[in-house]
Amino acid sequence: MHYAAYMELADWGTRWREGRIGFHQSEVTDFLAKYADRVWGDSVGRVLVPLCGKTLDMVFLAERADAVVGVEFAEQAVNEFFAERSLDPDIETGSPARYAADKYTLFAGDFFTVTPEHVGEIDAVFDRAALVALDADARLRYADRLRTLMRRGAKSLLVTFDYDQAEMEGPPFAVSAEEVERLFGDSFTVEHLETKDVLNDMFRERGLSAMTSSAFALTRR
Prior knowledge:
Blueprint: H1 9-17, H2 30-40, E1 45-50, H3 57-62, E2 65-72, H4 75-84, E3 90-92, E4 97-101, E5 104-108, H5 116-119, E6 122-127, H6 136-149, E7 150-162, H7 177-184, E8 188-197, H8 201-205, E9 212-220
Parallel strand pairs: 1-2, 1-6, 2-5, 6-7
Antiparallel strand pairs: 3-4, 4-5, 7-9, 8-9
């Protein structure tokens, strides 16, 4: 997962520099592969990936999108994404810095400083690990920010985790289906797609007795 605003941002940069990125997946998110066509059809338009790290999900999305826009605090992750694709991006310095090559435009900076002027008109959002990276107060801010970035009719595929928060400190934080509705229900149509058990040895070692992951389709009203 790609966490920011859950811990000190400087610590996040340190994790990338030291290679402590066990949250980075070596394959495309299964919920994305399973539900992309159902949520967006065969064309995604301009898709935003908040707190994107160097996720392979962006490569999957680029196969069906006109453009993929990512936001990531750790500039190292942005550089590694382009290097691993053998792409030489055009770079505009600033806050956030802008990297662009092929279908990809990645911003290196704090997600909460990104505006519609930066990202353009957003048709779709894929969130595997942004919402669950944020504490309760920041999740409210995140929902508000998405409202400003997504056009009416835009669709988001959201992935969450849920577990007994008393058993483990986040991140990833527990986000229930009820909280998804509270956060987004006033301006999005919320559809629960699937919930599955995802408890594994890593989370057992952190103290969890049960853990689920859910996928939701959110449509901006």
